[in-house]
Design a protein that fits this description.
With 128 residues, this protein is α+β, with helices and mostly antiparallel strands. It has one domain: RutC-like (60s Ribosomal Protein L30, Chain: A), CATH 3.30.1330. It starts with a strand and ends with a strand. The mean pLDDT is 95.
Length: 128
């Protein structure tokens, strides 16, 4: 499926791979940034509740494409508060399990709604 690249010359991470190689033929899926809004637009409070809903939304899109955590090759995370890092990572681990896609985390000054604390965007690939 995918080859996870973690060169010995680069500090190892327990949460992600430094590179993920995908060889053809694969279907690609780009999941737009998902936030903590349910189907009615309601938004929970707190980073763990928001992260859980954002990941739930990501996985709903993956499921629609017949994909799962093992198909995710790249994750981009946007957080508002550095103090939310541990809570976010706890929830991330719950959703990703043993999957360790390439990952980037960026701290930003704000998202589309001032109440949002995080946003999760992924790319996935699955063999055809």
């Amino acid at each position: 499926m995918h080859t996870y690249l973690n060169p010995a010359s680069v500090m190892k991470s327990n949460n992600f791979s430094h590179g993920v190689e995908v060889k053809a033929p694969f279907r690609w899926l780009s999941v737009a940034g998902q936030v903590a809004r349910d189907v009615k637009g309601a938004m929970p409070e707190g980073i763990e509740a928001q992260a859980d809903l954002a990941w739930s939304n990501v996985f709903a899109v993956l499921k629609e494409a017949g994909m799962g955590a093992e198909d995710i090759v790249e994750v981009n995370v946007y957080l508002i508060n550095r103090s939310d890092n541990a809570g976010f990572d706890k929830v991330r681990g719950k959703w990703l399990g043993a999957a360790k896609p390439a990952s980037t985390k960026v701290y930003v000054s704000g998202l589309a709604d001032p109440k949002l604390l995080c946003e999760v965007q992924v790319r996935a690939a699955k063999a055809m």
